[in-house]
Amino acid sequence: MSDAPYDGGSPGRPLRILIGADTFPPDVNGAAKFAERLAAGLVERGHEVHIVAPGAEAGPNVTRTEEHEGQPMTVHRLRSWRWYPHPWLRYALPWRIEQNAARILDAVKPDVVHFQSHIVVGRGLAREAVKRGIRVIGTNHFMPENGLQFTPFIGALREPAVRAAWKAAGRTFGLAEAVTTPTRKAADYLEKYTELTNVHPISCGLHIDQYTPNLAPRTENVVLFIGRVEAEKHIEELLRAAARVDQSLDVKVEIIGDGEQRPALEKLAAQLGISHRVHFAGHAPESYLKQQLTRASVFAIPSRAELQSIATMEAMASGLPVIGANAMALPHLIHHGENGFLYEPGNIDEFASLLTTVFTMPHDQLLELKRESLRIVQGHDINRTLDTFEALYRGEEVVDPVDDLDAVAP
């Protein structure tokens, strides 16, 4: 590798980009998926991409070539420890992060550092990059309210912990020359709880052409959920709503994903008498996920804390109507009465009623919902996302490519 950094100042010239992430595949979550998809897209466009992330298993620091979404990239895996309150999360050692960041930055000499989280890896990279005059971009996928469920901060300790987490986020993101997050709602949220301004809403993006819509009438009623099976997703509301739908509709529930809530949800399904109609698929290959997206009748997302929801965009790209909680950023994707419906969080009767509406809707009306999902998701094509980040990396002015300002509340 040359000691001189790439000349990133000329439009069209390839860049050397270093992406820092506290979670990266094989981790399964939205932030990891976005970082992987962004990195692969940049490699495909001819850029040199390096990833800094915790090791997926115990072991020393290691640098190797890994393939993600069909693209080779250099991944710097840091020695990591398991965060035992969480079912699988590993973290880079905080007391070594600045030393490791300095070592990697001096070896790679990137044109730009793009960190995906302020917690450990992003903090170290941002501090050391600023010292070296390297351009820094930060993207936030984190909500302290979600992360604290895996800490001892409960009860009276919870609010001070949330405030401390936001203060830490503000310090690290304050080092970046531009800050992004997936939606306008998420940008407003970040600005509200930190002293940041001018946060760019930039969609996580999706390879829309990789999904297969099926607009034909369904022969069974299948409601699909994809995501982590954790408390923040409120999957119990989906099970309770499905149990209240008229049995003659024979509603089947498909849950793709895994997490610490799975045993409790399996027990709940049994208590509700619907175990025979609920399939917990666990972690599944991409081929199975896409097959179920094509097969399902409707996608459900009961979460209250989505900064965007890649899974919802995947469902829309598969031509599905969506039912989701009227919370956080979901109304940016789910336009009530147009491509699906929003229910008030916790209102199980309303959730069940909306499921019934979809399953009993005349086919021509259902087609309108499906076609609107396909139309809305076009604004989230991955190429628009890549164009915008390339411009940010070069220090150019950008127009935020978020096509969600016409979100409709119920």
UniProtKB/TrEMBL annotation:
Keywords: Glycosyltransferase, Transferase. Pfam families: Glyco_transf_4, Glycos_transf_1. One of its GO terms (molecular function) is hexosyltransferase activity. Residues 215-362 form the Glycosyl transferase family domain. SUPFAM superfamilies: UDP-Glycosyltransferase/glycogen phosphorylase. Residues 28-209 form the Glycosyltransferase subfamily 4-like N-terminal domain. InterPro entries: Glyco_trans_1, Glyco_trans_4-like_N, Glycosyltransferase_grp1. Signal peptide: none annotated. It comes from the Bacteria. GO terms for biological process: carbohydrate derivative biosynthetic process. This is D-inositol 3-phosphate glycosyltransferase. It comes from Microcella frigidaquae.
